Amino acid sequence: MFILPIMKIRLLQIGKTNEDFLVEGIKSFEKRIQGYITYSTETIANVKNAASLTPQILRQKEAELILAKLKSDELVILLDEQGKEMHSRGFAEFMQQQMNLSVKQVTFIIGGAFGFSDEIYQRANKKISLSKMTFSHQLIRLIFAEQLYRCFSIINNHPYHND
């Protein structure tokens, strides 16, 4: 019997999450997500002396760190305010399509406070916006974790999501 490879999802983020309430919420959703799919987060340390750098130089330095973590065969999706907006069901359909296509690794990236450099935009396969509103790059981690959990509850017909 042929078994399709299991897709893995990774979240790359710049800098650690500082607020305890965010850390607790994120951990809660990560535990729930693990019931559906292999999920991991990887935190890239903040650039040293970031406060003394211009936003452009900081984005460039962060890009170097991000690009060093990416493999050529993974699907890279930026969580970006200028990305495509989706309803929760649309996001679930998109993720189901990736599984149907046997995508092995999907990496979502949350940039630093000043967003992404052109190099990261060029490497990305897709951009998704979680809202027209702007959220801190730390708060978006919790929002993303909740939406990813919601996505897999929809895919698996579990009652978390209400229409």
Describe the structure.
The structure is a single chain. The chain is built from five helices and five strands. With 163 residues, the protein is α/β, with parallel strands linked by helices. The protein has one domain: 3-Layer(aba) Sandwich (Alpha/beta knot). It has a five-stranded parallel sheet. Strand 3 (75-85), helix 3 (88-100) and strand 4 (105-110) form a beta-alpha-beta unit. The longest helix is centred in the last third of the chain and has 17 residues, at 139-155. The N and C termini lie far apart (37 Å).
What's the structural domain tally?
1
Which second-level CATH architecture applies?
A: 3-Layer(aba) Sandwich
What is the CATH topology assignment?
A: Alpha/beta knot
Structural class: alpha/beta
Major sheet size, sense and barrel closure:
5 strands, parallel
Strand order of the largest sheet: 2-1-4-3-5
Please give the count of helices.
5
Give the overall average pLDDT. Answer: 92
Task: Specify the CATH class.
Answer: Alpha Beta
First and last CA, distance: 37 Å
Order of helices and strands: EHEHEHEHEH
Key phrases:
disordered N terminus; 5 helices; alpha/beta; 5-stranded parallel sheet; Alpha/beta knot; 163 residues; 39% helix
Concise description?
With 163 residues, the protein is an alpha/beta fold. The protein has helices at 20-33, 55-67, 88-100, 118-123, 139-155, and strands spanning 8-14, 38-44, 75-85, 105-110, 126-129.
Please outline the helices and strands:
Blueprint: E1 8-14, H1 20-33, E2 38-44, H2 55-67, E3 75-85, H3 88-100, E4 105-110, H4 118-123, E5 126-129, H5 139-155
Parallel strand pairs: 1-2, 1-4, 3-4, 3-5
Helix pairs in contact: 1-5, 3-5
